[in-house]
Amino acid sequence: MESSRDDFIIAVRSAFLKKGYQQKFSLFSLILFSIFILTLGNFNFKIIEFNRTVIKEIIYYSSFIVSVPENIVEKYFNKTSNHFRYYDDYERVKNDLQKLKNKDLSKKIITFENIELKKLIDDYFVEDSQAYAKVLIDKKSPFLRSIIINKGSKNGVKTGMIVYDDIYLIGRIVEVNFLSSRVLLISDINSKVPVTIQPLNIEAIMSGIEKKQGQLEYIQGDKLINKDKEELIVVTSGSGGVFKSGIPIGKISLTKNLNNNKVIVEFYRDFSQLKYVKISSHTKENINIDQSNKKNFRENSDQMLKLNEQVSNINVLKKQKVINEEIRVKLELENKRLKNNLITTEKELIEKDKQIKKDILKTKNIEFLELNLLHGHKCRKSFFKSSLYKVGTDEYRACVLNKGSINRN
Amino acid sequence: MVSVNITIKSFLARNTPVILLFTSILNEIDFNNTELKYFSFNFSYILIFYYNVKRENGIGYTFIFIAGLFNDVVNGLPMGLSSLCYLLLCVAASYLRNITLRPSLIKDWIFFLITIFILNFITFTYLILFFNYEINYFDQLINILFTFLLYFIFSYIFGVYDNIISGKFY
């Protein structure tokens, strides 16, 4: 037991400390040195940063030189395979060109409208610097999908600048050396890009999963059901201010995503075929005003103020007109109502007059009948009183009303 | 003419592993990230482990250390991490060589699997704890699995190559 423990210790000690033939350092010392370098990597001392940059530059260019034969072979292989596809490509390109020509005009109009609207909301970015760079190394690392380009701080490249292939987003600068820089591709799992899905206008975060694919996070596949079109377009949303809005990234094929919880974005560009890229940074558009422009600007401002005042006056008058109109309508209604009332009252009055006349007549008749009972015999013509009046005549009535006294005119 | 041949063979026998190691690291073709979705392996691990188990001198620790630094820079990893892993792999290989009386490929193979598991564990831990890297564990597991499986094939190929080139030197 004791001897096997000793054997283990001897074997380990030998593994760590024994130097091989023509070897200057033991494994132990080199391991310590590695840990030392790793620890230093966590500090941002100027001298360490400088040494690191120099080492990186040397290694990047060494890697570029080592990759030259492979790149030449790849280039000629691609050329040969492209020759076999020329006719098919020609036909496809011809069709595409025709379609694009049709779309071009409407696109231009929409672009201008878009610029105007973005200016209105103060979200219009212009390129303040741009540079074209060659891809030095396209190393496929298992932990980091990135490329090395041949432009560095000497060419004005800064960390955070956006990298395009044509107009399509491919990544951003994450490391800048003097003559080279590292671009973190959007296909990397650590790359988080705020995106908008058009035309549904849904926002999400995209991270890379494969060379040609990304995955949308914080979104469900069933929210992307679009009845009109099969494909959805993914563009940068501009949230967070790292990327400007509206840079095309890829498309979502709904037929592939409907039955899946993961929403997969297929990039427009194949990142393994990158040769040259465009680096650019953006700032919000600043309008520079000189003296003559300032005068015009002031005059315009005054005119605008006057116009604004006039507009406000007109608005007040309009409001007054509306109020007057309301009052007029109310008065008309009131007038109509009163007229109706008047007509009704007049009718009632006539009715009442008639009623009064009837009543008077009735009263006179009653009075005549009463008097007729009392004095009728004084006026009624009979055999003995032939000078009196026949019943029903006017003279008889007058006699009754005069209580039997005969008025002989 | 014969002496020139011997010199060339001697040079190739001694330096082929180093040339292979640096070429595989600096070249754009990386088996760690192939075009295939479910296939990748770490060629450097196989190469370093094989030659450190088989040879007393191995590839040369200083070369391995520098190769690790190159790998870190090219892959965008924290500088020193790959060097540490490669050197720990050398320690494991050296320990295996010291304790082995009768060499057996199967034993080497199993020992290699345990070692790459530990090395990947160290790499992941360091990257996650100190650098907040997000790692696709499934891809890494596939990488480990194929690195382990292909060790058998590559050890055979390296053995044949050694026998052809420098059979009389080793």
Task: Give the topology.
The complex is a heterodimer of chains A (409) and B (170).
Chain A: H1 2-17, H2 27-41, H3 46-66, H4 68-84, H5 86-120, E1 125-137, E2 146-149, E3 162-165, E4 168-176, E5 181-185, E6 192-198, E7 202-208, E8 213-217, E9 231-236, E10 248-253, H6 254-257, E11 263-267, E12 276-284, H7 291-379, H8 394-401
Antiparallel strand pairs in A: 1-2, 1-12, 2-5, 3-4, 3-12, 4-5, 6-7, 6-9, 7-8, 8-11, 9-10, 10-11
Chain B: H1 2-26, H2 43-54, H3 61-75, H4 81-99, H5 105-131, H6 137-166
Structure explained in plain terms:
The complex is a heterodimer of chains A (409) and B (170). Chain A has 409 residues and is of the alpha+beta class. Chain A has a domain at 124-284: Rod shape-determining protein MreC, domain 1 (Thrombin, subunit H, Beta Barrel), CATH 2.40.10. Chain A has helices at 2-17, 27-41, 46-66, 68-84, 86-120, 254-257, 291-379, 394-401, and strands at 125-137, 146-149, 162-165, 168-176, 181-185, 192-198, 202-208, 213-217, 231-236, 248-253, 263-267, 276-284. The relative contact order of chain A is 0.06. Chain B is mainly α and 170 residues long. In chain B, 75% of the residues lie in helices and 0% in strands. Chain B has helices at residues 2-26, 43-54, 61-75, 81-99, 105-131, 137-166. In chain B, helix 2 packs across helix 6 (137-166). The radius of gyration of chain B is 16 Å and the shape is globular. The two termini of chain B are 22 Å apart. At the A-B interface, helix 1, helix 2 and helix 3 of A face helix 1, helix 3, helix 4, helix 5 and helix 6 of B.
